[in-house]
TrEMBL record:
UniProt organism field: Parabacteroides faecis
Record-listed E.C. numbers: 3.4.15.5
Enzyme's top EC category: hydrolase
Keyword terms, alphabetized: Carboxypeptidase, Hydrolase, Metal-binding, Metalloprotease, Protease, Zinc
Lineage: Bacteria, Pseudomonadati, Bacteroidota, Bacteroidia, Bacteroidales
Name of this protein: Peptidyl-dipeptidase Dcp
Amino acid sequence: MNKTLMAASLAVVLGACNSSKKSDVADAAPNPFFSEYTTPFGVPPFDKIEVAHYKPAFEKGMAEHKKEIDVLVNNSEKPTFENTIVALDQAGELLNKVMYAFSGQSSVNTTDEIQELEQELYPILSAHSDDISLNPALFARVKAVYDNQASLNLDKEQKKLLEETYKGFVRSGANLDADKQAKLRELNEQISVLELTFGQNTLKETNAFKLVIDNKEDLSGLPETLIAAAAETATADSMEGKWVFTLHNPSVMPFLQYADNRALREKMFNAYVCRGNNNNANDNKEVIKKLVTARLEKAKLLGYEDFAAYVLEENMAKNEKNVYQLLDQLWKPALAKANEELADINAEIKKEGGNFKAEAWDWRYYADKARRAKFDLDENEVRPYLELNHVREGAFYVANKLYGITFTEITDIPKPDPDAYAFECKDKDGSPLGVLYMDFYTRPGKSGGAWCGGYRSQTYKDGKKITPVVTTVFNFSKPAAGQPALLSTDEAETVFHEFGHALHALFGDVHYYGVADVPRDFVELPSQVNEHWAFEPEVLKVYAKHYKTGEVIPQELVDKIVKSGKYGQGFATVEYLASSLLDMDYHVMKEIPADLDIEKYEGKAMYGRGLPTQIAPRYWGTYFGHTMEGGYTAGYYSYIWAEVLDADAFEAYKETGDIFNQEVAAKFRQYVLTPGGIDDAMDMYTNFRGKEPSIEPLLKNRGLK
């Protein structure tokens, strides 16, 4: 993303700031944004930043940014690459500095005060961004350089920056007439506020529900670690002696997998899938309707037939036909595999003497039983070998084996949250690559899911390389006092996934912000390829050690993990594809009916394609933050698109007979992880692989072939 043009975008989650102290402290304390950070590695001084510091910092940042643009526009010299394109790319330093800190505060440590500030700031920031992208004199200078590029001696990176800058203006409405630009401003503000409102509603809905259990018999089947965490949650809520389960993934998902009490599973499941659809103050149905309408209107205003066409123009997929072709190619075999699994589930129910057919709240519970019956594998046998710190060290080990880089914990450094960890990353020659934060545990003010962001981007200043400050954020259950954090196999894989994103950020080496980003459907390649090492037997033997005894995971258990790895892929693929299709369906609409009924529309879109009633999409629209909050709009398909790439990429290692082949790793770093968005995405991949990817490895990995 070109930060200069898109400074108002708060959609990308970047990090967190400690906002627990009273904001009036800022009246006496100096605003930390107004001076150079003096912290180790130049990270934000989280211990000094208060909520009250943000608004004046944003106001000053926007004012300075405007002055910089005015100087650029009023430059009497002929527009050149340096005095126009580079100057524009580097403008807004203070504003970006504040943005990095604030945007994370709303995602990992939000409060009512922060949410009110977001509602106030979003329209202002949207208007500021439009003031830049719709500035006719500024665009004229950019266009003058763009039209004269044949006479300029630009290298590949400079050409890409010029192209992206010019295209960014055009896609932001620079060629529209005054009336249409005014309308675009209205739509941009409306969209930004609706996306914000959607996310705030979803968090409120997630935090609002609590399943309180006071009868110990109702805990039957649940792992002791989950029971202990629920007891601590109850104690924190002044319900000593009871157990509280929430809709945060580390609580709800294992509950649905292990709880013997079917009625309670049903209650938890329905609460989870009805978030944002309870006809209350946090209901998201009308938000969705207004949002997709505004997005479509914006797309048409800019000359596109629908919003997906506007988005996909910038992605590898290029158009919706290519997206649907991939999704439809996988849908049929995934359904077939899911129906095989459903037969297993119903067989388990019958085996237990149950006189009912499986419902959606039964799937995880009986699928776990079926997996145990087929492979003699109980995931609770695996958890003691997946202690969080060990898993993290496993990810570090793989990176060291592949690239020679090292991670050293830093303790005397400000952290985004007291529970977060910080690490200094160094290259194999000892040169600095950056700082990595890892924020593992769920908390009420934290958005759901897992992601990777940053507090500072890699760039160059005065010829010197500025290393990034990266953060990986998770939502694992915080263990009870004195207990270890034991992960599920999915959670361990998530550590490797987000760490793959972090490697992408740490290895980046570009000179301009405007060429730092890759297409949305390429961005998951570095993260997903990194998952492949998580459960390779050679890697498990290094990090999967029993948290009590230190015993390396037995080969017998490793064999069970490997053999059972493809089981459940029918369910996993179908629930994911369902949401990907739903995302696309919303954004390929050419007209939005005035009486659009969200529930009926989504039901027809899903069940009309044959989605079994026992499988809910991974996200129904009312809590589908990936698309409705702006990060993956018309882009949720990106995970499976990138999986075609990552499955094929891992084959490059396997073909050598060495999953740690350093020659292959060096090529992957050189052509995929380092160049940002300077090269075309497919060119980056073929430069690494020597050919375009095949879908066969993906089908094989998911057991769909």
